[in-house]
Amino acid sequence: MNSAQPDDENNRDVKTILILAANPAGTSRLQLDKEIREIDEGLKRGNKREQFKLEKIGAVRQRDFYRAILDYEPQIVHFSGHGGGVDGIVLENEADEPAFLNADELASMFKLFAREMVIECVLLNACYSEVQAKAISQHVNYVIGMNRTIGDKAAIAFSVAFYDALAAGKQMEFAYELGRLRLISYSEQQTPVLLKKEQIGTVQPLFDVIPPNPYVGLAAFTENDAAFFFGRETFVNGLVEAVNQQPLVGVIGPSGSGKSSVVYAGLFPQLRTSGNWLIESFRPGDKPFYQLASVLVRLLEPETGETAQLREAVGLAADMEVGKVPLSTVISRLNERDSSKRLLLFADQFEELYTLSQNKEVIERFVDALLAAINLDNFKLVFTLRADFYSFVLGYRPFRDALEQFTPKLLSSMNREELQRAIEQPAEKMVVQLEGQLTQRILDDVGNEPGNLPLLEFALTRLWEKQQKRKLTHQAYDEIGGVKKALANHAEEVYKRLDETQQKIVPRIFVQLVRPGEGTEDTRRIATRAEVGDENWGLVSYLAGYPARLVVTGRDEKSGEDTVEVVHEALIREWLTLREWMNANRQFRVWQERLKVAVLEWKNSNYDSGALLRGAPLVVAEDWLHKRDEEMTLQERDFISASVQQRSKEQEKLAKEQEEKERRRRRTTQALISGLVAALVLLGLIFFEWLQAEKQRLNGEISVQSLTTENLFTSGLELDALLSGLKTGKNVKKNGDAVDSDNSTKAIVALQQVVYGVKEHNRLEGHSSVVTSVVFSPNGKTIASGSSDNTVRLWNLNGQELHTLKGHSREVLSVVFSPDGKTIASGSNDNTVILWNLNGQELHTLKGHSSKVTS
Predict the structure, then answer these.
(1) Maximum CA pair distance of the chain?
(2) 110 closest CA partner among 143, 133, 139, 78
(3) What is the pTM of this model?
């Protein structure tokens, strides 16, 4: 008896963790096996591992839920699966169909369990499970729920870290905080919510609790958000019909029209209900074959580890790109494994193929591979494309022919009725009301402009956070700045909260996240850590996290580089400060994007010297390197340096050749002189020929110098052009008659062009700060200038100051003459416009603007 007593006590000290994993048919697939496996591995390695016992129950039905708790009497209950907000967590009924277990049922169940057993913690690892967590927290010491949707990888990361901490002997609060810390890289650290029984006390009235937010803000709707996706029912039904009838379906619409959402939250859930679909998605990125291969390897070898899958994806991508392993062969292999299921590949944001991939041959081979596969049985290809890139698709004949045969689905902006459902029905599902006429006000602000859907969702997200007693109000809507300004205001608020040093860094980060449009709008681009500056990555992480959420960070799976992109292109259109940064840096960014193409060509040619910069492009690159070297990557700087070195080698080689040629000429001349000592006539002839050669060399030298002067001036290097022109002129003057008239004229014309081009005709000085605006009067005889010193000054053409106009309290931003030239209007940062006469007298002050007057 005495020997058995310690064992009994040890058994009582062991805590049972019961994992209830539910992934009913018809719901999106979760990596439940991976989650359970990694939790188990973490528990086994912990120094307190002997204190925990893990039990696992899968494919949970409603009755299995309580039966498992009765059987194992766990101290920790862990549910992993899907959640539906107020509807409850998703289990299965007796017909193997999804069924909800709501908050009231769960609370009653755990209240009953609490009388007979000690359950210390309940972890609901499911989307929108905070509602159920609050109900359970009346009866359990610690309850963790999710206040919105959570990604599969993030959910696993949180769980593993939570149990790693428990296995190390840490307390619940510490384990919770460690789990949240692991979610920073997913920007979801605010999603898990910990509730403690002693803090909750009695149940709060329902209207005091802000329910989980059903709106998705700037992100696209996912399958997990399908329960709150409203307004696109008609389009989704047509999309489902199109997928069932044709092998290739394009969803084409303007930026922000919700293309990704209708596929993820509309099409996918409907297809999965049939149970005979295998669905995978990818984005082309800058390595389309690799992105596609990664998806295919997961389908071909689902049990293989991640490292092995990465290696396999690299190999398969290389084989597919050269045609060694056609996509059609891979898909046929998948069909052979399970002919009962149809495969759907979804290429989201297909415009990345044209914005991020610079190799035309790779683009066309990728399109050819996709088109060759759509003729296979049991295979469907769906892609989304921004409308302003439709011409890129139609520019490739095979793709155009395919879309002519298989008509794409064109997605336009939502009409008023659809938008009304998107606003009201998610709120109704969460038992939240909108104040009278608020919906109509929001709809009026949204209008019919394309691309406003993400702005609407973002505004609703902000509005939700300010609800009062489960009601969305006009006052809160005013506070967020309405639909159009909510995002811009948020971005501006985030920017202004930064310290002075960070504010100087932010423009460099954001201009690298925008690809300047040439014939199209500016678009977002994925930038690497090197492109935004490794030293700036801490600030990038802050901008990606809560509460900023202006950028999204990630990792390039092939290169292993950290990446960052703006959270949505709506930010580029609506944030005025970002647009100002782009306008100020546009010339540099356009040049830099072209440089990136040249660097890529150099790299693809195995660093062949023939791909380096030469001539005027190299001169321009040297100038940018001198001005903006900190904003270039190491590879870009190396490319320019290699070009400069190559130019030096070529110049050195040319100099040696000319020197050798000169030595040969001198030897020939000496031989002729020594051989013609006795023949003065022949010597005179040779001397004449030498003079002609000298003259020809001299004229050639002056011609090259004149051309160099013109090229430098054309490239904007005015000072270098002036020095070159003066050097050429000195050469002409020195050699006099030896220079022929054509070359003399060229040198003079080139020098005149530079001199007149850079000549300063007059200098008007008098302002004590920056000059912000300058304008001529209609008759051209008077000049008006505005300045940050709060004044407007009038000048004549001789540079004499006529009058100083004082009246503004802040910097003058714009100045303009009336058509008859008798009146002057000035606009200022003090929100006023002042009218003056030519004698400098103030006529009127116009007030009414709520912000600075810029024009």
Answers:
(1) 137
(2) 139
(3) 0.51
